[in-house]
Amino acid sequence: MLMDLWKFMNDRRFAGSVMPIARNPQQGFGSWSDGETLIDLFCSLRDRDYCQPFIYESELLGLLEKALMDSIRWGSCDMLSTFVDSVDAANGLPPSIISALHAAVLEDFEQNTSRIREDDIESSLSDRIDALEKLGSRFVVSDSVLDSAVSAIENCIGELKSEVVAPPLRVFHLRISVIERRLMTELFETFSSLSLIAGKTWRTVRSPSFRCAGQL
């Protein structure tokens, strides 16, 4: 917004307000929320047919490049898959962005086993397979590496399915048996208490003092 105000009004105050935000964003730049916006802003700054040169262009381009590389480095597999589309559609991105994206993809394949251990949602794991296949074809990952990664995810999905079917049934029967035992115990204690009360009452009724009191 500030960039647009500066561009249309040519007021340096708006340009000056851009830089503190770019240097130190309050909550940082998020991969999902800001990734595509950062790419668009970077490309627009380098597009001489789009607008006049920004007065702090050199510094802002450096800040945006670093923010993009950090977003790529710490992005998830799904985010990298989305980033690829944005990067391929962009014009004017520096080679460092492409290199960072390539390195992040290779690292994601290398860390596949450890990363799928942190995920216990079948749909998310299935999405990861789609993302890896897309990234693998884009960055020419070997078939053996891709097949190994996909096979590990499929095995993890199979384990999740088996856990969903078997354990709940065992837990259900265990809970039923526990409830049954608890009910039996409570019923036994109740009957015992009633028998005790009944015995005391009968002995009281039969006692001479009780019969005399009743006659009065």
% residues in beta strands: under 5%
Using the CA coordinates, give the radius of gyration.
Answer: 35 Å
User: Which percent bin holds the helix content?
Assistant: over 70%
The chain-level mean pLDDT equals 79
Separation of the first and last Cα atoms: 100 Å
The low-pLDDT segments are 169-176, 204-216
Number of strands: 0
State the oligomer: single chain
Order of helices and strands: HHHHHHHHHH
Attribute tags:
216 residues, mainly alpha, single chain
Task: Write structural notes for this entry.
- The longest helix is centred in the C-terminal third of the chain and has 64 residues, at 143-206.
- With 216 residues, the chain is mostly helical.
- The termini are far apart.
- The model is unreliable at 169-176 and 204-216 (pLDDT under 50).
- 82% of the residues lie in helices and 0% in strands.
- 16% of the residues are buried.
- The chain is built from 10 helices and no strands.
- The radius of gyration is 35 Å and the shape is elongated.
Sequence-ordered SSE layout with sheet pairings:
Layout: H1 2-9, H2 12-23, H3 31-46, H4 57-73, H5 77-89, H6 95-110, H7 112-117, H8 122-138, H9 143-206, H10 208-215
Concise account of the structure shown:
The chain is 82% helix and 0% strand.
